[in-house]
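ugh ok so i messed up the first submission bc i forgot one of the chains. this is the corrected input, ALL of the components this time, i swear. 580 residues overall. if the numbers dont match what u have on ur side tell me asap before i send this to the collaborators (the ones from the other lab, u know who)
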Amino acid sequence: MAIWTLAALTFKEAARKKLLWMALLVGLAFLALFGFAEHYQTFGPRVTPLLRKQIMNTQFLVALYVLNFLVLAMTVLTSVDTLSGEIASGTIHAIATKPLRRHQLLIGKWLGFVGMLTIFLALMVTGLAATTHWITGYSPRHLLQGISLMWLEGVLLLTVTFLFGTIFSTLSNGILALGLHGLAFLGGWIEQFALFTNSERVATIGVIASIVMPSEALWRRAAFEMQSPLVGALGFSPFAGGATPSAAMIGYAAVYCLATLALSLRLFGKRDL
Amino acid sequence: MPAADLAIRTRGLRKMFLQNVAVEGLTLEVARGEVFGFLGPNGAGKSTSIKMLLGLVSPTSGEAEVLGRRAGDVPTRSKIGFLPEHFQFYGWLTAAELLHVHGRLYRIPREVLRRRIPALLELVGLTPHRDKRLRNFSKGMLQRIGMAQALLNEPELIFLDEPTSGLDPIGRRMVRDIIKSQRERGATVFLNSHLLSEVEITCDRVAFIKHGQVLETRQLDSRFEGETTVSIRARNLGPEIASGLAQWGSSIAVQGERISLTVKSTDVLPDLLRYLIGRGVDVYEATPQRPSLEQRFLQVVGEDGGL
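and heres the new structure output, hopefully the right one now
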């Protein structure tokens, strides 16, 4: 019960601070921009229906790419202060002395943020898919798999932010969490380029980066799932080239996320407040 | 004292932060129903001790029991109230909402909270501000709402860490009254403070601590024990009075209407006064000069305050 009280409190905070409204406003602006671009998009006589479909697919993935970035940034920005800030200010003393276990406190907060992330992502992807379908009649394939992977990426980064929040100050936490994701992002691109230039050793570096932080691998797999089979067959797209993360990597990311959560619980359970 | 009568019992409780000793070896017993003052200079380890008793900080060694259970025990916390030092909470909550959230964390049913929250807001004088956000609260108002939060579960044991900090005289009076009513309810109050005059009025017993060790515990009741200086104001003092008083005390000084003497115990006072009246002296006042808590504190802790 304490878990739900705390999870609901996270929602209430977002609502009270107008974060939810601001996020939805940004989301609406985003959808409007995308919708107008699609609406006024004209194709010359040389564009075959097949090519047209490829363009629309790429457009859709570009929008998701930006949305993915927005979700990740919002996740880190909103949750970065929740543990470290309350520990530093002593606000947590009044909560942690109530009849609830430390793990309930952490899970309650975590669930609140997972809930907000889920709602925002679901609303935005539904909005994007609906706008695209309504304007162009195009529907991307494997949308659910794609969103699920994006969702897992958000949850993964959230959990990493929670883990750092149990150890470091707010600012260090933000730098570390975003820095780690930056590393994964760069690793992903290195892996793609390595495939192009046939450099096995460089590809290994990219894979190592994904093992250290598998967040970007999830996006690349999501893009791979949603891209058109033709682009996939060509072996090159800006989002998912031939270096597609394997199912094992996705499993690894899920285990990574759970292990990070377990470690956060352990560290938070033992630390002095 | 039997363990069942104790609200708090610690043995050699010790806390080190890296190489620094915060609490050296705290051995303490607080009886149920007692208002106990925990006094010490800044940095004496008072807050760390409270945090260990509440399970916020885990001790490096030693043992601590609170209400008969290991300190930090989760179910026992539903019988404990805590006002942290410099209480603060989410600024976006209103006073009533804050109490509701904490009430839910205590697992108090909503219908009970519906009755209890207005009563507590009234008790701490915040009824007109019930819908005001905490970010607009003054320091004193935050302390007041923190106090209300600590009483939500009608606790058996209440920890108050510097409850009067930031409070004006009216607020301090309110804290005193609350402590008094909690004692009457049978609750134990563990008061951490360095406002000695406050402690003197409210506490039954105090412990002086320095470097996390109890230097002395002291009962604060009206009975005077040991050698006490008595100040007497009287008229019609004959020259033989000073030598006559020598049978009850020493260091006798007579100056105008004032007599000052040191007696072995206040038990001799009735005989002494009967003697004076028998000699035709008009006695207006006879006051044992109790050394103030502050004087005793400075004697025990030292003027340097342990810094």
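quick check: The longest helix of chain A spans residues 102-136. that seems consistent at least. Chain A touches chain B through 23 residues (CB under 8 Å).
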